[in-house]
Amino acid sequence: MPRTTDGDGTPVPQRLLAAATRLFAEQGYDRTSVQEIVEAAGVTKGALYHYFGSKDDLLHEVYARVLRVQQERLDAFAGADAPVEKRLRDAAADVVVTTIDNLDDASIFFRSMHHLSPEKNKQVRAERRRYHERFRALIEEGQREGVFSTATPADLVVDYHFGSVHHLSTWYRPDGELSPQDLADHLADLLLRALRP
Amino acid sequence: MPRTTDGDGTPVPQRLLAAATRLFAEQGYDRTSVQEIVEAAGVTKGALYHYFGSKDDLLHEVYARVLRVQQERLDAFAGADAPVEKRLRDAAADVVVTTIDNLDDASIFFRSMHHLSPEKNKQVRAERRRYHERFRALIEEGQREGVFSTATPADLVVDYHFGSVHHLSTWYRPDGELSPQDLADHLADLLLRALRP
DNA sequence: TCACACATACCGACCGGTTAGTCTGTCCCG
DNA sequence: CGGGACAGACTAACCGGTCGGTATGTGTGA
Prior knowledge:
DNA-binding; homodimer; mainly alpha; Arc Repressor Mutant, subunit A
């Protein structure tokens, strides 16, 4: 039997990624030592450097995974067959729900991006931009149709909305009385209300 | 002549604080060494530890300064003699302008808060809450008067707005075509539009 | 079917370098 | 001449990453 899955059923690379995600979110990238990560995953440094090129590489993998998932979901909502108000509302609410579902990823995202090497940072920013642009296109579509106000430039509206989404990890408490879906509905509502002509 | 001001006219503690602020914002708290700070301020470690108890202490001072300034400004705007819509709009726009004026402080704030020791973190959160509550009271006042919609709970609206304000340091580029005041007007407008009954 | 060759997965000691913080001493002002 | 304001050498603790080594599995040719 290959060691890759021993002890626990999940393969070692995934276990390392999961441990790193949790620890990065809890203590920050710089404050998490490679030693801590491998201990949490039940392996040693040899295993980590067998699968990943560097600690930085590990962080990059976390980002790549999140970005991939979010882009896929946005594309699905934005490309649906429905009026633009509904598509925007659904997309805006969905990003809130999935962000809450992965609050660890979110806090890593907005706190640790500058720890990535310049080239990887550039790569992440490029993917991030693609995401924003898809969202912006949705708003511009509604503005052309006349269902959204043109008082504010679309890209500003996008940054306004995502600013608060990114900050969810700072103030949202899962044990509060507001369910993720309720919160998502409220935030999407705020966006749509701000866009009323 | 006391050494306290030599070389440059500004006192050593302030020079240390200014250097630390810039470096923390540029590279993050953990990636900035005490050695770098003292070199940038033109002194040595002896001076730093003469005035500050620890590196953590230095970060806390940065926070304290920002919070004090922002609270004062908010109190002034919120307590003015004007209809609540105008007071909220002015306060919402002002926080954007002053945040842009001190983008370094802002990026430290939202990236490095978790580096503070638990007790200092608690202290900062408490002051932060006071600030949010003053802002929320303004919204609730308008809701009672019937000039703001009650569709969304006031504290959610506050978090929505400040989420994007905190994220200004991520995406706002001072060399862009949008002046700080223009941007502030747009963001305040988005808030007020979302609150229309 | 057995033996040999090789690859993969992982261990853990180790290294060069960095860091926050300390401590002793010096200088200068009142 | 006493004490505040620093200088700067020093230390003890880590940290990311490397590397030689081992155990297990897999493919292949006779």
